[in-house]
Amino acid sequence: MSFEPADPVVRQLRAALTEELPGAVALRHTIHADPYVSGEEGPTAAFVADAVGAGDGVIVAGTGRLIRVGDGPCVVLRAELDALPVVEQTGVSWSAGDGVMHACGHDVHLAALTAVARAIHRVRGRQASLAMLLQPREERAPSGARDVVEERVLSRMETCAVVAAHVQPRLPAGLVAVTPGVVNASADEFEVTVSGSGGHVGYPHTVHSPITALCQTVLNLQSLTPAGVDPIHGGVCMVGRVESGTTNNVIPEQASASGSLRLMRLEDREPTLERMRRIVEHTAAAHGCVGQLSVVLGEPVLVNDPGLAAATTGWLSELGHATTDDFRSFGADDFSFYGHHAPALMMFVGTGGDHGLHDARYLPGDDVVGLVADALLAGYLAAAPAE
């Protein structure tokens, strides 16, 4: 943090943020060592709220918090509370136990947001124009972001913008992606059920195997579904679970599979789902079986506000950070719900390394807390109302 911004208030914010970082790193270790899965994050929310020192805020989405820092129109900075059911393998002294781990960097996000909120509160007081959104259930349905939107807590206050930053090992360490437009895919969950007629494996001519039909259905879904989407925009249909049968010499009467459909354009959703239904039904029918497709609609496409992205890029440059504007992925984040109600910006902070998100060995360095904090500060400066 050697760069000196020209604006005196920003210099004060940067200095205050630098002073807050050691405490934020310690906070990160505590959060990391005591994680909670989706829907059980209340203790983490209370702990972070206490660390910020701006009051308890209001409870949102069951186990989350919305904490106002200052008065008037505000910029909402969001961080996620939940951890994953992963057995940690990082080996650090502050590792988590009990098969739960912050393997997606949410501990870093929370620590960085705490540092930024404390710094802004110190420097700007009642003129802070900030709200901290400690959001639950980003990792698992029902979506915490969707609940926050449906509870209308953001629309009841003058929300200028909603901003977040997420660690990303697919980017080089230190690089911050601030990409305008579409940056993450929509994510819908689907399940395929194939019903046939079972019997003895030694008499295949007397059965209609749902396993055979399901296997071909899985291959067709993963190859034919994306073929119906313009490759400029792209689509991904992947099956992550296949289940059937109880023993090796009996053909069962039913087989099932489930997976995820991801798209980069909202207008591709309905025609693609209809294509999937035809694939399931016709493939099963070709094997003398009946196929059914059920779908649970998830996160919409995540779209960054172009003006907010451009302004934030300028502030990141002022703070001395390298940026890129062309990082996109078929990852999904329920942050996308906020963009339908206010200007929104999701940044990605590069961590590099050999391990990816949700890996039991993924552990960003403590220095990343400061980088994420700077990204959030830049987003706040870009969106905050003029004095």
UniProtKB/TrEMBL annotation:
<dbReference type="InterPro" id="IPR002933">
    <property type="entry name" value="Peptidase_M20"/>
</dbReference>
<feature type="domain" description="Peptidase M20 dimerisation">
    <location>
        <begin position="189"/>
        <end position="285"/>
    </location>
</feature>
<dbReference type="InterPro" id="IPR011650">
    <property type="entry name" value="Peptidase_M20_dimer"/>
</dbReference>
<protein>
    <submittedName>
        <fullName>Amidohydrolase</fullName>
    </submittedName>
</protein>
<dbReference type="Pfam" id="PF07687">
    <property type="entry name" value="M20_dimer"/>
</dbReference>
<dbReference type="InterPro" id="IPR036264">
    <property type="entry name" value="Bact_exopeptidase_dim_dom"/>
</dbReference>
<keyword id="KW-0378">Hydrolase</keyword>
<dbReference type="InterPro" id="IPR017439">
    <property type="entry name" value="Amidohydrolase"/>
</dbReference>
<dbReference type="GO" id="GO:0016787">
    <property type="term" value="F:hydrolase activity"/>
</dbReference>
<dbReference type="Pfam" id="PF01546">
    <property type="entry name" value="Peptidase_M20"/>
</dbReference>
